[in-house]
Amino acid sequence: MYSFLNSTHSLNTRLNLFVASVKKLYPEIIGIAVTRIDEHDNLYSVYRSPDYGDNFPTFISSISQSPRLNKIRASLEPSIIDNMLSHQSSVKQIHLRLLQSNCISSMACPIYSNDIFIGVLFINAKVKDFFSEKINYFTTFSILISLLIADNFNNKKSFHSIVKTVLLLSHHRDPETQNHLKRVAEYSRLIGLYLAKKGKCNGDFVDSVYHFSDMHDIGKSLIPEDILYSTKIYTDEERAVMNQHPELGCQLLSNILTTFKYDNNQELDIILNIIRHHHERYDGNGYPYKLKGTDIPLEARIVTVADVIDALLSHRPYKQPWSIDDVELYLINGSGTLFDPLCIDAILYSLDKITLIQKRYPDVIEETAPL
C-alpha cells in the first residue's frame, strides 16, 4: 500500500503505485495528471495515468484564458467540477477530450514548492458529484501527490545546484554568461513543447531537457584556459583539445553523480546524451561519434539548435550579435545538414518567443571604466 513512498522508485513508478492503491478503494477514479507551467503561462503534462490513453491533453495553452485554472494559481486552492457535462468551460476542446475517457467530475489542485506555483494536479472520476462528497479524503490525497511532485522537483533542483556550482566555476571568465545558459534552457523547452505537440516526446522528457540543457558545456571546465578563453582561430591541435570537452564533461558529471549518489537512470541518460552529443550534426559530420539523423538522441538535437541560436544572437568578444533575420536564414539553410528539420520547424514557429526570452534574460556586457 505504501510502496509509493519508496524514494528509490522513479516518480512515474511512485505515482502509478499511488493511483493504483487509491483505485482499489475508489474504482470510480479514472486517474490523475500532473502538469508543470512554463515561462509563457502554458501548462504541459509531465505525468498522466495510463487509463487516459491519449485523451488527456499534453499541452494547455495560456492558463490565463481559463478562469478556473487562473483562479487556482492565484488562490492556491483546489477547484471541483461536479458535472463536466454541464460545465461551461473556456477550454471546451479539452473537456471534450476528457469526456471521451468518461471523465464526468474533476478536481484540480495547485502544486507549489516553497509557496511558488509550479503546476496543477488533475484528478478525474467516472461519476458526477464524486469529489464534493469526498472532499476531505481527496484534499489529503492531492496534498500527498503534491508532496511527491514537490519532493521530486526539489531533488532535481538540489542536484542541479550541485552541478551549477561546477558550471559557475567553469564560466567565471567564460564569455558565455549564466544568462546564456538560461536562454538555452528556455529555447530547449520551446523546441521540446513543439515536438510534444507533434507526438515526438512527452512533457516529462521536455521538463528534463529544460532542467539539464545548461549542463551541455560542463566539460569546458577541464579545458586549459589558454585554449578555452582564446579569441583567435584555433590551430588543429587546439581544436582537437577543445573537441574533447563532451567526453570530459561526461566523465566529470559521472564523478559528481557517484559522489552524490544520484541514481535516476532515465534522467541520467538524458543529461549524458546532452553533454556527449550536442556537437553532432544531422548529416553525420559532427563530433565526437559522427552520429547521423535520428541516431543522435533527441535531447541532444534539441540542445544543439538552442545553443547555436543563442551563440549567434549574442555578443562575444570576437563577434557582434547576428540579427534575428540572419539567424533565421542560417537555420533554414542548415536544416537537414547541421540540424534536425523538426527542431528548426519548432524554432521558426516560435521566433517571437525567442525575442521575448532574449529580452527577459539579457547579457550584461562589462565595460572597462575610463582611466
From TrEMBL:
<feature type="domain" description="HD-GYP">
    <location>
        <begin position="155"/>
        <end position="363"/>
    </location>
</feature>
<dbReference type="InterPro" id="IPR003607">
    <property type="entry name" value="HD/PDEase_dom"/>
</dbReference>
<dbReference type="InterPro" id="IPR037522">
    <property type="entry name" value="HD_GYP_dom"/>
</dbReference>
<dbReference type="Pfam" id="PF13487">
    <property type="entry name" value="HD_5"/>
</dbReference>
<dbReference type="InterPro" id="IPR052020">
    <property type="entry name" value="Cyclic_di-GMP/3'3'-cGAMP_PDE"/>
</dbReference>
<protein>
    <submittedName>
        <fullName>HD domain-containing phosphohydrolase</fullName>
    </submittedName>
</protein>
